[in-house]
Amino acid sequence: MKVDFTRWLPAIAKDSYRKTALSVVGVAALGGLALAPTAAAAPVTSGPHQGAVAAIDLATGKAATTARQEDQPVESGLTTGSATGKPPAGKPSREKLIPHGIEGAQSRIPLDDAQLANARAIVDAAKKTGVGDRGAVIGVATSLQESKLYNLGHLGAYNDHDSQGLFQQRPSSGWGTPDQITDPEYSATAFFSALKNVGGWQDLPLTTAAQTVQVSAFPYAYAQWEEQAADIVQQLW
User: Fold this and answer.
1) For labelling alongside 47, which of 60, 84, 128, 226 has CA 20 to 30 A away?
2) What SS3 class is residue 24?
3) Burial (CB count within 10 angstroms: exposed 0-12, middle 13-18, buried 19+), residue 14
4) pLDDT over threshold 50, residue 8
5) How many domains does the chain fold into?
6) How confident is the model at residue 74 (pLDDT cuts 50, 70, 90)?
7) Does 115 map to a domain?
8) Containing domain of residue 71, as a range?
């Protein structure tokens, strides 16, 4: 997929203290986005898309790179586990968060306050919907892939159809209105409601569970975020 980053007009639209939608005009179409909440998993068509990663980096003033930052610690006070390997008191264990093991090479990014707030919204929705800490890991990893944990607004002429929000859900496919799917609590709840309809999702690898909900053109891309998603959930749970 050709990605053209020659023209950039980033803007931040804040609707409330709970919702910040990031809008970018002149970004090439983002691939691998959510279709419908009840659709079947799509076949593999390509590797993980880097368009969304590069778009958000540039739009938020970060380095214009899609290189993985595997050794970079999570910011905003999040840690990556204790020296003894034991979870902090009252937090879920690594084995519970990643019951099937890590699949493939892992990516890691630093988190700013907006990303951390969105991660908290996903974790809170996981608790409310009853999918538990493992469901939260799937949700956070999915959002890391789809939007880098940014609440994306419409990307103008270069938007992939009408995909928006943390999970790049589409109003035209039944996920909700634009206002709804750019509300972190609503979009996360919608994602987890769809996940609960996936038979045996608890026993599926993360990328399979996420792909069955998202129907992405890049189904294996979710796996690369499982480790960081587990770190985030362990700290925020």
Assistant:
1) 60
2) strand
3) exposed
4) no
5) 1
6) very low
7) yes
8) 9-236
Residues whose CB is less than 8 angstroms from the CB of residue 65 and which lie 6 or more positions away in sequence, other chains included: 54, 57
Element (H, E) at 124: helix 113-129
In a domain, 96, yes or no: yes
pLDDT in tens, 36-66: 554 333 333 333 345 555 555 554 445 433 3
The mean-pLDDT minimum among 27-41, 82-96, 201-215 falls in 27-41
Q: How many CA atoms lie within 13 A of 33 on its CB side?
A: 26
Q: Is residue 2 part of a domain?
A: no
What does pTM read for this prediction?
0.73
**Do the domain assignments include residue 1?**
no
Contact 194, 169 (CB under 8 A): no
Residue with tokens 């990556």: 80
